[in-house]
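User: I'm curious what two different proteins look like when written out as structure tokens. Can you demonstrate?

Assistant: Sure. I'll show them one after the other, since each token string lines up with its own sequence. Here's the first protein:
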Amino acid sequence: MTKLVLKVKGMHCAACSTLIDKLIGKQEGVVSIKTNYGAEKTAIEFDEEKISLERVDELLHKLGYDLIRPDERGATVEEEEKKEARQIAEVRRRAIASFVLAGPIIIYYMLIHMLNLQHVHAITLFGSSVDLNYIYWILSTPIQFVIAWPFYRNSFTAMRVGSANMDVLVVLGTTAAYLYSAIGFLFFNIDHPFWESSAALLSFIVLGRYFEARAKGRASAAIKELLKLEAKEAHVIRDGQEVTVPIDQIQKGETVVVRPGEKVPVDGIILEGKTHIDEKVVTGESFPIGKTVGDEVIGATVNQEGFIKFQATKVGKETLLYQIIQMVEEAQATRAPIQNLVDKVSEYFVPAVIVMSVITFVVWYFIYAFPFRAGLLRMIALLVISCPCAMGLATPTALIVGIGRAARFGIILKGGEALEKAYKIAAIAFDKTGTLTIGKPIVTDFVPVGGESVSEVLCLVSGVEFGSEHPLARAIVEKGKAACGALPEVKDFEAIAGMGVRGNVLGKDVVVGNAAFMDSLRISVKEHAPLVEKLQREAKTVVYAAIDKTPAAVIALADTLKPHAREAIQELKKMGHEIIMITGDNPKTAEAIARELNIDRVLAQVLPRQKADVIARLQQEGKSVAMVGDGINDSPALAQADVGIAVGSGTDVAVQTGQVILVKDDLRDVVTAIQLSGKTIKKVWQNLFWAFIYNVLAIPVAAGALYPDYSFIHPLLGYLPSGFTLRPEIAGFAMAFSSVSVVTNSLLLRRYTPPIERSTTRV
């Protein structure tokens, strides 16, 4: 199966996405398809043995849509920008052409109405009297059937598959106006055909499409900006010589050379040299990061000063930049839960509008006995102004901008659901080791309690810990290497999660772990309790070492808090969140850390497999819970939480379980993620409110609700405006304006600056 997120250009309303899903979704080999109108993207899963991407492209083209197909690395920013520019240019040409043709008609009727002038029915041309209506007819016809042809094409396609979109409303309204004018003028000698209504209406709609296309392009600019970050070429060592190659020709394992001022082309590990690298473009990190041999470098970042050589470890789709782009694209293609309701409303809205427009015509023409023209004008105005475009754009455009903005700060929001939930969070649970703390503890105390010497016990303990990947084990190994040099080999190694390790070193049974582990092995450590309590009061983690079933040492380790952890916790508490720490450490050590950070609640001695259960219990208390953690051990808890926030580790962000990923290791980004989610959802509700209000107010006005004088019902109603009729061309302008205003309101999210940057700029 193949899963792709593809760009689709040419959609005009939410019903277009429904049309695509209906047609493509019923094709053999298509497992699922979800199209997002606002994002102009479709997430499709299909079997390439049954249906090709070329066939999907062909079907979409028949519908009037344009698919931006990816190559092996994905569509380049140049390809996408060129294609998008051509499409915007095409809409711009149509808008200009329509106003050139409709301009004389619009200006003439504006002057007639504004200055209350008499109609001029004919002009003298080449010595002959020419009826102006013929000229208006000639000018409006190309607008109706050439410039507006895409509306007809899309309408026919939609109706063929049993759907109805905004184009159907436009075609019905303008065609009715055009045919009434043509037939009435030719056969019934009507005094005033309204060519200007259909011509101006289409002109305003095409103009609105142009502005909307530009605005939506700005909304999705985050992906384009990320794509532009990638280096174009790289210097690699081949056959002992430095050669310059395109970035897509770099092979994993090759040695890459980067000089000062150059971009790091791919991810890797430094082999030679030291420097400072500006990672802001990818991670959002404000200051250059010092790098030396053994450190990771990230593709698309900028080498500031030093000459370095590094081994390429991740190329192509494996790089951090590509992972971020993929996750942002997937997130932008998803729908927030609220969007499902909006899409459902939009699906039935168009048929309902058609019914309402017919009722409007019947009421004014047959019941109130107004002229045919008056009933038709109101029907057309209602058809056009009722377009649900603004409602369809309300949610996705806000999500696109919000998710894109977050990506610029090194925060990956995996879709609309995460955004909807994040701002509702009541409690935030933090893992301790590696999340609140650096996760690289050091041995502060090594106290022998048996007959062996410090060096002898340290070498044995370091030998058995060498087989473990736990941060505490790494700290003990580092101390052992410094004291013993080469460590002895461990045999029969066994690691028990949340307890400790054991193994045979130099013929001795060596055990290292917590008190519970010692109790399970019937090794008594009670006599060392006073020493342990003293060390724990100092916020140190204590483990025991035993050799051949006899206590040999008490080992204390301390971890340091991450920079800005205290600042992040303080800000989250100001925002009204309950802060909880979940750790496998003993209660005394955990509480010491909690006091230092002013954490509300501590849950200690929680095994990795129990963390998800703890989150579930917190949820049972009626709380909406976020979990912040790092590493595989936290994955079940991250998945259980309402919102899982995973702290990224180096370049391995794709494996994270969380719905929110912090690419750089800065806990202040938790604050940013929650703040930005709240502001994004606020924009969604603002957009939906105004779109809803627009339709609620506009539909009655278009139907003629402000024409009668209601004073006969009640004197106070006499203050309402009366005698007002909304002309179709004005309805078209209002419809276009509503869509553009929704997108523009969403674009305001691009002004959001996280607290970390605000505090930096003040300095």
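Here's a second, unrelated protein for contrast:
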Amino acid sequence: MSPTSRLYDALNDFLRQCDMQWQDARHLQTLCWMIIGMIGSQNVHLNGFGVYVRSRAQMAQSHQRRFRRWLSNRRINVASAHHALIGQALSNWQTQRLYLSLDTTVVWNCFCIVWVAVVYRGRTVPVAWKVVAQSSSTVRLWTIQRVLRQAQRLMPEGVAIVLLADRGFADGKLMKYLRENLGWHFRIRIKRSFQFQHQGQWRQVSSVQLQPGQAYFTPAVSVGRTKPYDNVYLAFAHDKLSSENWTIVSDEPTNLQTFAQYRLRFQVEESFLDLKSNGFNLEASRLRDKVALSQLCGVIALTMLFLVLQGVQVVASGKRRQVDAHWKRGMSYLKLGWNWIRLAITHQWKIHVYQFLSCSPDPQPAIASRRQHDDSLKREFTVLSRIPAS
């Protein structure tokens, strides 16, 4: 038995859970080998996958052509397989709220990837994505709506969804779509140039001058003077530690907890590092075809889900210290799962398949920096009862 045979069997079982009818059994086989290549090489460069593949092909170029043909094959819908598996992973979610992060990232100044992911224990797990052929990170509303509709179909029933987004997505039409069409809540950071109506008077966000350590929460207001959107709430704060001004728009009354909720969005930045330089190294793929790049994102999303499920089980079973040298958890669940699979391959252990993401609180929250953790506990705010004078 080859070192990767047990991993191949586990991935084959994992992917067959989605009840997807593959048009050709070789499509599923190639997908398994691509994921094995990513895990083994810690890269998405197709040239590096061949050394992990068992097949009749002897030449490295043959493996590369095989993977390129698979990625360019429009009959293969890897997103459908991923949607079925992520929907299954979230189906047992029992907590009251589930937080989604919406963001974009640009690769090679050629493609923009719109990314919606579940915020989960210090990172995000991909739910839906779309590749757009443009160099700007700003995308049109209908593109965002299309990705959000995909994500909505995968959400568990009876769970309130809260979307977190940065300033580039602060748009009244998007807020209306989230609230009225999807039935979601939102926490979106807005620019200082944004206008809002307070007590019948229109004013800019920048006109609210707070001293360090102060916060102010508005009653229901309208935002966007050109096309106003009503009945939203603003949260203002001047963070003393970072010396930054923060303004969050929410569909629900705001308080200090609003900022803690919005900070969950930062976890997508760490996931983009995993996607690029700190993990899969997406830009090393050198793909310049939109369809192939979208398919590759699907393979990465499946790999991330598989590894996160492994990492969750590693912590739950008390085996974290076998793959993480830190006293407190210092690695993401993705990296824990990655290291566990490599350890299992080394020792030829059986690799089990897991289906569900636990919705219970993180039993071992990551503490990468003790100083940053201690500083975060020092944040204090004085809440003002009225808007400060300009």
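A detail about the second structure: The domain at 80-269 is CATH 3.90.350.10 (Transposase Inhibitor Protein From Tn5; Chain A, domain 1).
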